[in-house]
Write a structure and sequence with these properties.
It is a single chain. It contains 11 helices and 16 strands. The protein has about 400 residues and is of the alpha/beta class. The protein folds into 2 domains: about 260 residues, 3-Layer(aba) Sandwich (Aminopeptidase); about 110 residues, Alpha-Beta Plaits, CATH 3.30.70.360. The strands form 3 sheets. The chain has an 8-stranded mixed sheet, with helices on both faces. Strands 7, 9, 11, 12, 13 and 15 form a 6-stranded mixed sheet that branches. The protein has a two-stranded antiparallel ribbon with strand order 8-10. Helix 4 crosses helix 11. It starts with 6 loop residues before the first helix and ends with a helix. The mean pLDDT is about 95. The chain binds zinc ion (2 copies).
C-alpha cells in the first residue's frame, strides 16, 4: 500500500521509530512514568510549544500549541488530544533488540506507540501551525487500572484547559495497518471488581449443626449472582458477571470460618453497572441471612472504569479525518463495542469526544508477552491526529 501521507509526515518516520523504541526499552508502571513524562515535556519544548505543564495528576503532561493567529481564550477554540504513557507488569517475550530493559515490565499495550504518535503530531503541527485555535496535547499516566485520566481531571485538567472536544485512540491488533475502526455510541465496557467475604462459624465436618457453614452459603451466592444478568438486566443490555476466585478451607473434615470470593462485572452502560452493584449486595445479604452467616461486599480497591461512550458529532469528525487519511474503504465505521475497559471514559464523561482504533496488523494481542507496537502504523496515526486536530478545531 502506498502511504497517503504528506512528505512532512513521511519524513518523520525514522525519528518516530527511534522514539518509539526508546520508550519501549524504558517501560514505567502506572503513575511512575517519570522518565517518559520528562522526555515528552522536553520534546514539546523543543518543538516550540507555547506552554508545557508537568506533574498534572502526578506525572501527566499537558502542552499547548496555538495556531498561526494566536491563542484561543475559551473552550470553543480548543480541542484536547490524549495519549497514555504507562506499561504493564509483564515479562517481555518479543525477542526484539529494543526489548524492555526493566525486567518484569513491558509496553504490552502499545502506549509507547500512542505517546510517540501524539509527539509526532505535535512536531508536525508545531512546524505547520496551519490551524486556528489552541490544541491541548495531553499525556496521561496510569491508564492500566490506575485511573490516571481521572487523576488529571481531579487535578483541574478541564478547569485549567477548557476544551470543546476530547479525542483518544488505541492501536488494534488484528486490524490491518493502514485501516481504522470506530464504534458508534458505547465503544468499550465499564469494568468493576467484586470482592465478597462470607463469614460463618467453623466446626467439625461431622457436626454441622454446631457450625454455620460459609461454603454452602457461598455456593448459593455464586449461583444466585448468575440470575442478575439472566433475570434482572434487560435482555437487550450487554452485561457479564463472573466469579473468578473462591478461597476457603484446607482440610477434608473441617468446616472453615470464612470464604473469600473475587470476580468482575462489565457492562456497556453506567446505569446497568449501578444496577448490578445494587443486586450483588441484595443477593449476598439475602442469602447470608437465610443461612445465618455474615457477608461483606468490599468496595472496589481500584476506581471502577465507566463505559467509554463516543459522541455522535465528534465521531463524525473522527471518521471524516480517518477517511481523508486512508480512504472510506479502509475505515470500519460502526464496529461492535469491545468488552475491555478504557480510562479515557472519564474524559468522555466530562467533554464530548471520540475514541478510535488504529490498525496494528497481525501482532500478538495487547497484554501478551509477545506483543509489540507496529512501527509501520506510526505515519497513519500521526496523519490521523494532524488531520483530526484541524477538523475538530474548525467544527462549530
Ligand atoms: Zn492495556
Ligand atoms: Zn492500552
Amino acid at each position: 500500500m502506498h502511504a497517503p501521507f504528506k512528505n512532512s509526515i513521511a519524513a518523520l518516520v525514522p525519528e518516530l521509530t527511534e522514539w518509539r523504541r526508546d520508550f519501549h526499552r524504558h517501560p514505567e508502571l502506572l503513575y511512575a512514568c517519570h522518565r517518559t513524562a520528562k522526555v515528552v515535556a522536553q520534546r514539546l519544548r523543543e518543538f516550540g510549544f507555547d506552554e508545557v505543564h508537568e506533574g498534572i495528576g502526578q506525572t501527566g503532561v499537558v502542552g499547548l500549541l496555538h495556531g498561526a493567529k494566536g491563542a484561543a481564550m475559551n473552550a470553543a477554540g480548543r480541542v484536547l488530544l490524549r495519549a497514555d504513557m504507562d506499561a504493564l507488569p509483564i515479562v517481555e517475550a518479543t525477542g526484539t533488540e529494543h526489548g524492555s530493559q526493566t525486567p518484569g515490565l513491558m509496553h504490552a499495550c502499545g502506549h509507547d506507540g500512542h505517546t510517540t504518535l501524539l509527539l509526532g503530531a505535535a512536531k508536525h503541527l508545531a512546524q505547520a501551525r496551519d490551524f486556528d485555535g489552541t490544541l491541548v496535547f495531553c499525556f496521561q499516566p496510569a491508564e492500566e487500572g490506575g485511573a490516571g485520566a481521572q487523576a488529571m481531571i481531579e487535578d483541574g485538567l478541564f478547569e485549567r484547559f477548557p476544551v470543546k472536544g476530547v479525542y483518544g485512540l488505541h492501536n488494534w491488533p488484528g486490524l490491518p495497518v493502514g485501516q481504522f475502526a470506530v464504534a458508534r455510541g458505547p465503544a468499550m465496557a465499564s469494568a468493576d471488581r467484586l470482592e465478597i467475604v462470607v463469614k460463618g462459624k467453623g466446626g467439625h465436618g461431622a457436626m454441622p449443626h454446631l457450625a454455620r457453614d460459609p461454603i454452602v452459603a457461598a455456593a448459593e451466592i455464586v449461583l444466585s449472582l448468575q440470575t442478575i444478568v439472566s433475570r434482572v438486566i434487560d435482555p437487550l443490555e450487554p452485561a457479564v458477571l463472573s466469579i473468578t476466585a473462591i478461597h476457603a478451607g484446607d482440610a477434608f473434615n473441617v468446616i472453615p470460618e470464612t470464604v473469600e470470593m473475587r470476580g468482575t462485572f462489565r457492562t456497556l452502560s453506567d446505569a446497568t453497572a449501578e444496577l448490578i452493584k445494587t443486586e450483588v449486595r441484595r443477593i449476598c445479604e439475602g442469602v447470608a441471612a437465610a443461612h445465618g452467616v455474615k457477608v461483606e461486599v468490599k468496595p472496589s480497591p481500584t476506581k471502577p472504569y465507566p463505559t467509554t461512550v463516543n459522541h455522535p458529532r465528534e465521531t463524525d469528525i473522527a471518521v471524516a479525518a480517518m477517511r481523508t487519511v486512508v480512504g472510506a474503504e479502509n475505515v470500519h465505521d460502526g464496529i461492535k463495542p469491545v468488552m475491555g475497559a478504557e480510562d479515557f471514559a472519564f474524559m468522555l464523561n466530562r467533554v464530548p469526544g471520540a475514541y478510535i482504533f488504529l490498525g496494528n496488523g497481525d501482532s500478538a494481542p495487547v497484554h501478551h508477552p509477545a506483543y509489540d507496537f507496529n512501527d509501520e502504523a506510526l505515519p497513519y496515526g500521526v496523519a490521523y491526529w494532524s488531520e483530526l486536530a484541524r477538523r475538530a478545531l474548525e467544527a462549530p
